[in-house]
Specification:
The complex is a heterodimer of chains A (115) and B (112).
Chain A lengths: L3 E4 L2 E4 L5 E7 L5 E7 L5 E9 L2 E4 L6 E3 L9 E3 L8 E8 L10 E2 L3 E5 L1
Chain B lengths: L1 E3 L5 E5 L4 E6 L7 E7 L6 E7 L4 E3 L3 E6 L4 E6 L8 E8 L7 E2 L3 E6 L1
Parallel strand pairs in B: 1-3, 2-11
Antiparallel strand pairs in B: 3-8, 4-5, 4-9, 6-7, 7-8, 9-10, 9-11
The chains are: A mainly beta (115), B mainly beta (112).
Chain lengths: 115, 112
């Protein structure tokens, strides 16, 4: 079955460490997105990529980095510069011009906790 | 019952009753809207969408109403079932934009 796989499901990080969240899709979708979700808040866009080797900052990119070396993969690195990284992270994708046709397909998320 | 989705309010309904979840969107230029359902520990799932040239759209047990004058969106769920318990988000998009903007969500609990 096609879909988006995020791993790990739970991740614990010590303060001062960088961690990388994995997002892989086999939907052949062109665009991929990373969102952050905090309790009581809506989803906020971190980064997005519409084609391979290109990506743009979202509304809350500070302290994060991404790469898009392959169409299927869009890993997110949470750096030590991110002051409040504990959150639920969601990866999403869209096929071609499908943003306005049923919106995103989401992965099942990674819950990151700083210990 | 009904609720406004700006501060993750909660809504509790009896099984079999109808639910109404509300959302106030921010940008008058937004012209495409989606309702998502998110179950605990999972990613959001598409429920229904509506474009600004429509006031109402119906799906299976769900109806979305759009009032552009007051920038208000609502999701009606008929005969609410325990499996409907989740957080519901509205999301808005503008034709010139390449992302969706999400509301804070409403937590729906169905009481058996």
């Amino acid at each position: 079955d096609g879909g988006i796989t995020q791993s790990p499901k739970y991740l614990f990080r010590k303060e001062g460490q960088n961690v990388t969240l994995s997002c892989e899709q086999n939907l052949n979708h062109d665009a991929m997105y990373w969102y952050r979700q905090d309790p009581g808040q809506g989803l906020r866009l971190i980064y997005y990529s519409q084609i391979v080797n290109d990506f743009q900052k979202g509304d809350i990119a500070e302290g994060y980095s991404v790469s898009r070396e392959k169409k299927e993969s869009f890993p997110l690195t949470v750096t030590s510069a991110q002051k409040n990284p504990t959150a639920f992270y969601l990866c999403a994708s869209i096929e071609g011009d499908g943003l306005r046709v049923r919106g995103y397909t989401f992965g099942s998320g990674t819950r990151l906790t700083v210990v | 019952g009904e609720s406004v989705g700006l501060h993750l309010p909660t809504l509790s309904v009896q099984e079999g009753d109808n639910s109404i979840i509300n959302c106030a969107y921010s940008n008058s230029a937004s012209d495409y809207f989606i309702w998502y359902k998110q179950e605990s520990g999972k990613g959001p799932q598409f429920i229904i969408d509506i474009r600004s040239n429509m006031d109402k759209r119906q799906g299976q047990r769900v109806t979305v109403l759009l009032n552009k004058t007051v920038k208000h969106l609502s999701l009606q769920i008929a005969a609410t079932q325990p499996g409907d318990s989740a957080v519901y988000f509205c999301a808005e998009n503008r034709d010139t934009g390449n992302q969706f903007y999400f509301g804070t969500g409403t937590s729906l609990t169905v009481i058996p």
